[in-house]
Amino acid sequence: METSITTENEFLDKFHPTIKGFLEQDQVSYLIDNVLVHGYRSPDCNAIWLRDHSDMLRGARYFESDMTSAITHFAMTQQANGSIYDFVSCAMDRENWTKYVRVPVEADVEFRFVKAIFLAWQATGDHAWMKEMLPHAERAMNYIFTHPWRWDAKHGLVKRAYTIDTWDFDFVDDHQPWLNFQISERTHWGIMHGDNSGYYEACMLLARMYHHLGDAARAAFWQQTGQGIRERANRLCWNGRFYAHRVPLDDFRMPGVNEAEQLSLSNPMDINRGLPTHEMAVAILREYQRRKQHTAAFAEWFSIDPAFPDGRFGDPKLVAGAYCNGGIMPLVGGELARAAFEHGFEQYGLETLLKYARMIYQKGETYLWYFPDGTPASLETSTSPDAQPTDGWGSSAMLYAFMEGLVGIVDESFRFKKIKLSPRWVIADVQNASIRVGYGASDAGLHYEFEWTPNKGRIQLLLEGESEVRLHLLLPAQRTALQAKLDGQLWPYHQSTIEMSQYIDAEFKAQGVHRFEVTLDR
């Protein structure tokens, strides 16, 4: 089924095809050992970086037919100690060599590898391929949990060098002439929340895959491992309002930096990976809203706020407000919008999507980062050799928020066999919507028609598909459900409250075409 979103709001209808257009320009294919390796490039480099590729699959899966070749290649080139390469490229230098790189200071590659496996399996339903990948995933996770560069045994959490959140270069002393990617005796270690939320999610995804294969013992092992990471990270990294940028493991403190106030980009990602409780997620969202009211920046999608002093990470271009040192990133905005929709801040989520839509419709461009005044990245201001106006990392995060947050289809299994269906169109004053969502790598798809008739106090969903459905339907403000019907028969439901938002919750099994109708009070 081809994905299409049709409503009476043409502004919203353009969102998916516009971002699909960006992603289609970000595709890269290499012939390596006579095998095609197809993936998605970073916006600032023509290599297939696993971190970007794995995140971009969340948007590309709605049209991409090849979800597995890049992941298979990273698995087949896995190093002897279990670690995974950061990227592969055949076009980075004048010589067309095949080039592999693992940046030593990086601690997040292995959880992104596991997430990519899960997303590919989810879209394809290829159980045999998934089973073949799991030993590689196990070795990658074992590397992280045992290597002295990655694991802090005292706290039972993943550690890393002093980088800016998840980025791939760390703080440099005066002796270092440029960006530093190496571990040395001068490395300042710390625990960064985003690594640990990523490994928590990876553990839970491994549990889900093993559960599907009927291996209860491995499923239980990974679930328990993940829960342990979650408990320890929430105890250590939470500062009462958000996750602290890092918890240092030595006495070094960056001169001129108020570390207690630094809000870094993995915070909304932590929410979407499931690390915080709902109450903690709400605190993070409110912190972003508070900073939105006080920032001079055009959006609160900070890579980090406040930024570090100029030049402390080795490149004079890394001034405050540039790139990962306080630049404004659609990547963060998309994660923030997705978190907002899920935790009762639907209006905030919608406003974020609309702000981004206005940006990309104006010139048909999107960049990895912007200066706070709205000036986009450029070759002159970037630390990287490229700065494409088709940023797929940030745009795919926005599409992820749009599809799962506003359109409201979350695949909780594979090929839509089990879904959470949360149409939130009432927040956008959309009364009619026709939704078709499919995966490009399989024939799996779902179709629903949404109709909200305010003067009759009725919301109807016409659903076509074969799924176990967990309906979580947003109601108009200050309205209460009087009854619900499935195919004309009264159906059990309950009304739940998330912050100030009211939802109808019901469960049913869809086989073919079904009509769910909610009658509201006047």
Report on the architecture of this protein:
- The chain is of the alpha+beta class and 522 residues long.
- It has two domains: 4-407, Glycosyltransferase (Alpha/alpha barrel), CATH 1.50.10.10; 418-520, Immunoglobulin-like.
- It has 13 helices and 21 strands.
- A hairpin with a 2-residue loop joins strand 20 (494-498) and strand 21.
- The mean pLDDT is 95.
- Class derived from helix and strand content: alpha+beta
The residue fraction in helices comes out at: 25-40%
* Distance linking N and C termini: 38 Å
CATH architecture of the largest domain: Alpha/alpha barrel
**CATH topology description of the largest domain:** Glycosyltransferase
Annotation field: number of helices: 13
Beta-strand content bin = 15-25%
Overall, the morphology is globular
Radius of gyration: 23 Å
Largest sheet: 10 strands, mixed
Total separate domains: 2
Instruction: Give average pLDDT, whole number.
Output: 95
Strand tally, please? 21
CATH top level assignment of the largest domain:
Mainly Alpha
Uncertain regions spanning at least 5 consecutive residues: none
